[in-house]
């Protein structure tokens, strides 16, 4: 089983592309229905991302109540990042560090809330990493202080894989579902109408590395 009735399920979406190129709500709703059918109560489900504004811009309603499916971000009131669980490295661009810190703290959504994670990125190009897939969506969506990894010559390597490799992430991910209903071959990670096409499909699997390879090849083709 992917989930058990007692699990708190975090559904990590990718909402940076606005209503046009974010994780489609139809897919998320189907995931929620499936979880409910498996015995997971709706209030045990959290749709989440780093930034509340991105969730809202993508058409998701914030809900931190004890009724219904919850939806909030790491920067939502009362959430934040865990000072005890972090990725520490000097393999970055020092001038882009937040508050000169060499630590990227993991969100409390993954350290204190979710017991399992379903990762739902979008099939799309990324100007720095080539593709914004399973690994980047969850790794950089789970920690703060990520600006320091994006610039050349790093281009997010090895931070993406190192952050994902922490047991707090890696051991909780039970399924990856890449939303390719509308995909992007250029202009990513945000929406560029001249860089999209209707792939009209999903990439689904338990191995995020394998899915990212397929996603990358699909975007390149």
Please give a handful of descriptors for the protein shown:
221 residues, globular, two-stranded antiparallel ribbon, alpha/beta
Task: Write a compact overview of the structure shown.
By secondary structure, the protein is α/β, with parallel strands linked by helices. It is built from 8 helices and 11 strands. The radius of gyration is 16 Å and the shape is globular.
Explain what the structure shows.
The chain is built from 8 helices and 11 strands. It has helices at 25-37, 52-57, 108-113, 134-139, 147-150, 159-164, 167-170, 208-220; strands at residues 9-13, 45-49, 70-73, 81-88, 103-107, 116-120, 122-126, 130-131, 173-184, 196-197, 201-205. Strands 1, 2, 3, 6, 7, 8, 9, 10 and 11 form a 9-stranded mixed β-sheet that branches. It has a two-stranded antiparallel sheet with strand order 4-5. The chain is α/β, with parallel strands linked by helices and 221 residues long.
Structural class: alpha/beta
Q: Which blocks of ≥5 consecutive residues have pLDDT under 50?
A: none
Mean pLDDT level:
96
Beta-strand portion reads 25-35%
Count the beta strands. Answer: 11
Structural shape:
globular
Secondary-structure element order, as H and E? EHEHEEEHEEEHHHHEEEH
The major sheet is characterized as: 9 strands, mixed
Distance between the termini: 35 Å
Total helices: the number is 8
User: Looking at the chains present, what oligomeric state does this protein adopt?
Assistant: single chain
Radius of gyration: 16 Å
Q: Estimate percent helicity.
A: 25-40%
């Amino acid at each position: 089983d992917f989930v058990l009735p007692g699990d708190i399920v975090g559904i990590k979406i990718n909402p940076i592309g606005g209503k046009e190129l974010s994780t489609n709500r139809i897919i998320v709703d189907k995931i929620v229905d499936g979880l409910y059918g498996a015995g997971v109560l709706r209030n045990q489900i959290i749709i989440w991302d780093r930034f509340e504004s991105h969730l809202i811009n993508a058409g998701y309603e914030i809900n931190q109540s004890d009724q219904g499916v919850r939806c909030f971000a790491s920067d939502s009131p009362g959430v934040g990042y865990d000072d005890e669980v972090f990725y520490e490295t000097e393999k970055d661009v020092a001038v882009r560090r937040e508050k000169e810190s060499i630590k990227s703290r993991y969100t409390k959504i993954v350290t204190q809330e979710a017991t399992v994670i379903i990762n739902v990125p979008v099939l799309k190009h990324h100007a720095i990493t080539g593709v914004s897939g399973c690994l980047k969506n969850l790794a950089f969506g789970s920690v703060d202080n990520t600006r320091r990894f994006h610039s050349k010559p790093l281009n997010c390597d090895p931070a993406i894989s190192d952050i994902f490799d922490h047991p707090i992430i890696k051991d909780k991910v039970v399924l990856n579902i890449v939303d390719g209903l509308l995909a992007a071959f250029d202009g990513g990670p945000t929406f560029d109408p001249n860089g999209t096409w209707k792939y009209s499909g999903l990439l689904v699997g338990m191995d995020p590395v394998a899915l990212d390879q397929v996603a990358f090849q699909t975007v390149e083709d």
